[in-house]
Amino acid sequence: MNIAQNLVRMAALFPEATAVNENDRDISYLQFHEESNRIAAALTNLGIQRGEHVALCTPNTYAWLAMYYGVLKAGAVAVTISAALKKDELTAILDDCRPRLIYTTDDRLQDLAEARDRGYLDWVVSPSGEHTFEGLIEKGSPGFHWVNRLRDDAAAILYTGGTTGVPKGVILTHQNLQTSVHNVAYNERSSRADRALCFLPLNHVFAQVHIAGSTVYSGGTLIMQPAFEMDRALDAIKRLGVTKFYAVPTIYVRLLALKDVTERFASVRYCFSAAASMAAELVREWKGRTGLDIHEAYGMTESASMVTFNHYHRHVVGSVGTPANLVEVEIRDLEGNPVGPGVEGEICIQGPNIMREYLAKPSETAAAFWDDRWFRSGDIGLIDETGYLYIVDRLKDLIITGGENVYPREIEEWLYMRPEIQECAVIGVPDHEYGERVVAVLTTQEGRTVDPVELKAFLKSKLAPYKVPKEYITVDAIPKSSAGKMLKREVKKSLLDQINLQKA
């Protein structure tokens, strides 16, 4: 099998149908199919072998999609990397996955010097690099036949952090991806008539699998935009007749500020929110204003997106729904024992959508499963008597701000490099617009002070913008346990108490 067969099939059935619209240019399924064939042929001619890693690190474009499907058709593995990463972050990921080729933008060329010196990166494809996207298209054959792979072979590697903040490459197989794109298309009642707006980053599992993968699977149209811009998104909805709108909570907050949001969303039949949980009152306000539910599901990179889905026929506000087809969900206590309905515990998942492993991290892979079968999500939840799942809390320190995952340890490592910092704890506090905002709580070295402006500038040079704390709070001491472990829950509680006191 090969997940790219979904594109092959749609090109055979509906060759003239629009697969992608980018900057008002329509790309048909036949053109998409043939150009990804050309990419696959060109990669093969360069010497890319089945199972080898090819990295993609650009903003959203049609070319990204053509490269992605070209890599898959060649039998290689697509490593999808955020275009927002800074040099050190990018280098760490490249050293981990060691791709033979990377597709990127010209402004990243200098950032690749270390990877080139290490000897694993043979080719760079960029607008003015040694190879270009257009050059690959010209050199490749449109008649290339996709390479057959086993269902448990790696198809894509997506990076996620975890409790340590050290990036982990999640290996998703062809079966993982096929299971999820089918489940999304089925549960969302996707069809050829759908026009899905995609401005969320394609390196993330949500845009890559849930939006793009399921739209290709069902023969709909992807309307591609590089990022969310309010006016541009609203213009696309109106002019191009968007039927499916995918966003994160902070975007829905901004949209609700529009007086004419109902008219703006006249063509939309389906709304979905990813990443952070939506506040129930926000979902109800959106429904009251637009007549549309904001659907939510539960998923993560390791589950190739969808685990549960909140249904059309019984949409329960506050829940993330019931398990998708072939996916099992159990709640277990911290010793790994299943618990009954209504009892809180760790959400554990089993199914053909669950990742094969973390790249080159066998011990972390083993620790992520109970009995080698049930994936431990690290999230606390409960299942009610009717089978609906509710998210209660997170075991991990993960912060979700504006739909982006932020891992505190990564930020703390950079903070500890500053001479004025003695100790630090990065936490997330509730924020009406972003879901959570990143806050750094600090103690200083004796005789030193913190300049928040200078500190923020330093972090902006090292980290993607969404990871940089919005606030820097200096305290006399950070609470610790008797064993000397920093008690982040106490730090957060104290900060929340201060915020509530100020509100009062």
The main β sheet shows up as: 9 strands, mixed
Proportion in β-strands: 25-35%
Number of separate strands: 26
Number of domains: 3
Structural class: alpha/beta
Work out the helicity level.
25-40%
Shape: globular
Radius of gyration: 23 Å
Tags for this model:
single chain; 504 residues; alpha/beta; Rossmann fold; Luciferase, domain 3; GMP Synthetase, Chain A, domain 3; 9-stranded mixed beta sheet; 7-stranded mixed beta sheet; 32% helix
What does this structure look like?
The longest helix has 18 residues, at 29-46. Strands 2-1-10-9-11-12-13-14-15 form a nine-stranded mixed beta sheet, sandwiched between helices. The chain folds into three domains: 5-227, Rossmann fold, CATH 3.40.50.980; 293-394, Luciferase, domain 3; 399-503, ANL, C-terminal domain (GMP Synthetase, Chain A, domain 3). Strand 5 (101-104), helix 5 and strand 6 (123-125) form a beta-alpha-beta unit. It is built from 16 helices and 26 strands. Helices cover 32% and strands 26% of the residues. The mean pLDDT is 93. It has 504 residues and is α/β, with parallel strands linked by helices.
